[in-house]
């Protein structure tokens, strides 16, 4: 009977629910608790082994029951690729958000689903959708930017792609997790409107998309650890949102009290058994926890296992698919579509090899594999194409490439002055930002940044190069905002290349030399001064999160950013005209004509915002509510349409505890960035 139950077959939702209850009814308390506990036990040696020998080299298991034939969940991390094995390394999530290409993100998630299954995993913990409140956050690279709508669209695309291969998608970290160094202790305070409107909508979007699981966060919210927070896990997630999946802890330090965690709504302790297992069983036997709490958790777990682990597969999953040629090609395409061109003075880009014969490539990062931090998101790809390698691969036979790593500033000056053109590769690398691992025995990795500028030694190299040669192109690597006020006016061109994955060097070269027209747009605001940003203290015991951040804060305070949210230019130019709106069946349809005014094909991201200047409550000047990435041939015009549901206009009334839509006149904006000067505007009454 058990073998048949756990064979892959097609079942309806009703059949799954009935079967899950039937299985639950046959289980002993010990078997139930086993479903809620990691399959290994916590010891200091186990954690040391996890860090020293390689995190998540193989799946982490929970809930294996040989007697009942119940398979375990088999966890792999992300989000720049599958962490187990030697998988395809894509650009980091922040880079992919800069593509503003939802279809591309779903294709990437589809590949991750294939590579997870091919390596024995059925559970993916890489859908990181925490909001970038302040760009100094160490793990900014793992998420999709500062805007809740953008986060929700990219997160739900990941959910669709991953789960299409019967891999359970886990969205993380729930909730309000936007600091790194203090993540185990910080208590985040915020009002209900801010929580519901700013920090939770993207999680709700992914739940509505069908995400099978949620990971709680380490931090506290309003005085309670997220793993003990009944309001977040039970009231909001399971009651208000009708989430029927299961909740796991963030690893090792995701809970401190089994009784509090179980009552709050933690369904599985991962990856080790510390507070559940026999301790949880004893709490039930001592009547400190009602067995109904256990039954609810186990029913959720069994239901998702039946839904995904026993569902019919649409294909076979062979190990040869991992990092295959097709997947590596997608990694390059993703890197190409993610890079953001911020400045291109006198059209110095793309580089014309008929005119440019000597190129200086400067900076140690030009010849350093640099795919992101070495925390839980680290992908062990078999190779990484560096910027220098990519440039040599593409044009090494056509032009002379002189490389200087920056260790000798006199040599930097000599090489730069002798070149027709200089490419400076600078920015951040592993150790400058990322997951903070001191509590796991590694004090040398990442964490929150103290400054948003590049390191002093990097600035000296850049400064020397651009002072010697006015034809200097600066390429920035990193996972978040890099401020450039000291030098941006002196650089001829500025390109953000991010942590661009295993094929990043090839992608960069193809953009620099014109084989690809850049189309990326910023998923965050770059300020002119750090003083314009929200308060940030990386060692805080307690912090308040306000209603405004990012472009909404800049709009409210009338700050002029260095580069606005949604900004990015290309090798062609676009014009916008004829903004029209129509309200029908609770949907606002917005149409705008976009023309490619140049002589090369390009991709443009059309952005749609809704304004609330007539609101009776405090609301942002405008919020992103839609975007479309389109391809335009030279001189081609397209009418680009976007549907905005009336529900998207609602605000959360903390007095009535309901979402409400005001009967007012709203502004509708459309254009190439969030800058008000870039946007066409009209009005509509609701």
TrEMBL record:
InterPro entries referenced in this protein's UniProt entry, alphabetically: Cellulose_deg_GH3, Fn3-like, GH, Glyco_hydro_3_C, Glyco_hydro_3_C_sf, Glyco_hydro_3_N, Glyco_hydro_3_N_sf, Ig-like_fold
Molecular function as annotated in GO: beta-glucosidase activity
Superkingdom of the source species: Bacteria
Lyase listed as a keyword: no
SMART domains reported in the protein's UniProt record: Fn3_like
Domain Fibronectin type III-like positions: 604-674
Keywords, ordered alphabetically: Hydrolase
SUPFAM superfamilies: (Trans)glycosidases (SSF51445), Beta-D-glucan exohydrolase, C-terminal domain (SSF52279)
The keyword Transport is assigned to this record: no
Pfam family, one: Fn3-like
One biological process term in Gene Ontology: glucan catabolic process
Family (UniProt): Belongs to the glycosyl hydrolase 3 family.
Name under which the protein is recorded: Glycosyl hydrolase
């Amino acid at each position: 009977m058990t073998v048949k139950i756990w064979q892959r077959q097609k079942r309806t939702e009703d059949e799954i629910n009935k079967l899950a209850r039937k299985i639950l009814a046959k289980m002993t308390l010990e078997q139930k608790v086993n479903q809620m506990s990691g399959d290994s036990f916590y010891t200091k040696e186990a954690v040391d082994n996890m860090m020293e020998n390689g995190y998540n080299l193989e799946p982490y298991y929970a809930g294996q029951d040989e007697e009942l034939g119940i398979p375990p969940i088999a966890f792999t991390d992300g989000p720049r690729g599958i962490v187990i094995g030697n998988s395809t390394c894509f650009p980091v999530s922040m880079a992919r958000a800069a593509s503003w290409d939802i279809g591309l993100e779903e294709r990437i998630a589809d590949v991750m689903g294939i590579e997870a299954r091919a390596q024995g995993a059925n559970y993916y913990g890489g859908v990181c959708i925490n909001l970038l409140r302040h760009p100094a956050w160490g793990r900014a690279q793992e998420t999709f930017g500062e805007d809740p709508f953008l986060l929700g669209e990219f997160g739900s695309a990941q959910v669709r792609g991953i789960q299409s291969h019967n891999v359970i998608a886990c969205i993380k970290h729930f909730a309000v997790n936007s600091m790194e160094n203090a993540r185990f202790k910080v208590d985040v305070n915020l009002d209900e409107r801010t929580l519901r409107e700013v920090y939770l909508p993207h999680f709700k979007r992914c739940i509505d998309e069908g995400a099978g699981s949620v990971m709680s966060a380490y931090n506290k919210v309003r005085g309670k650890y997220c793993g003990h927070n009944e309001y977040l896990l039970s009231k909001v997630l399971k009651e208000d949102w009708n989430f029927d999946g299961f909740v796991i802890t963030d690893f090792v330090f995701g809970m401190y009290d089994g009784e509090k965690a179980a009552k709050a709504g933690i369904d599985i302790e991962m990856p080790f058994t510390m507070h559940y297992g026999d301790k949880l069983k004893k709490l039930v036997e001592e009547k400190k926890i009602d067995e109904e709490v256990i039954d609810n958790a186990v029913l959720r777990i069994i239901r998702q296992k039946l839904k995904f682990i026993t569902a019919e597969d649409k294909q076979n999953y062979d190990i040869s698919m991992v990092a295959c040629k097709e997947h590596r090609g997608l990694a390059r395409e993703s890197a190409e579509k993610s890079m953001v061109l911020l400045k291109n003075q006198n059209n110095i880009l793309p580089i014309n090899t008929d005119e440019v014969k000597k190129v200086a490539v400067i900076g140690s990062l030009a010849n350093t594999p640099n795919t992101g931090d070495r925390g839980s998101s680290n992908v062990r790809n078999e190779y990484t194409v560096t910027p220098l390698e990519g440039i040599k691969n593409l044009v090494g036979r056509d032009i002379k490439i002189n490389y200087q790593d920056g260790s000798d500033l006199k040599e930097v000056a000599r090489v730069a002055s002798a070149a027709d053109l200089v490419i400076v590769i600078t920015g951040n690398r592993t150790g400058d930002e990322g997951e903070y691992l001191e509590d796991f025995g590694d004090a040398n990795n990442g964490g929150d940044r103290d400054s948003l500028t590049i390191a002093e030694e990097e600035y000296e190299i850049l400064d020397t190069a651009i002072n010697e040669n006015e034809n200097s192109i600066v390429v920035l690597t990193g996972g978040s905002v890099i401020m450039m006020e000291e030098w941006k006016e002196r650089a001829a061109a500025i390109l953000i290349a991010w942590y661009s994955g295993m094929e990043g060097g090839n992608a960069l070269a193809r953009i620099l030399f014109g084989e690809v027209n850049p189309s990326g747009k910023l998923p965050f605001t770059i300020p002119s001064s750090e003083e314009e940003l929200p308060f940030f203290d990386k060692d805080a015991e307690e912090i308040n999160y306000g209603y405004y951040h990012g472009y909404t804060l800049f709009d409210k305070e009338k700050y002029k950013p260095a580069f606005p949210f949604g900004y990015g230019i290309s090798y062609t130019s676009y014009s916008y005209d004829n903004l029209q709106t129509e309200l029908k069946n609770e949907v606002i349809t917005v149409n705008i004509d976009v023309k490619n005014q140049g002589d090369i094909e390009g991709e443009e991201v059309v952005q749609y915002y809704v304004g609330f200047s007539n609101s009776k409550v405090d609301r942002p000047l405008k919020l992103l509510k839609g975007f479309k990435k389109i391809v335009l041939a030279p001189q081609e015009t397209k009418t680009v349409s976007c549907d905005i549901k009336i529900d998207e206009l609602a605000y959360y009334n903390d007095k009535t505890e309901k979402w409400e839509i005001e009967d007012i006149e709203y502004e509708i904006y459309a254009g190439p960035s969030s800058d008000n000067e870039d946007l066409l505007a009209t009005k509509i009454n609701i």
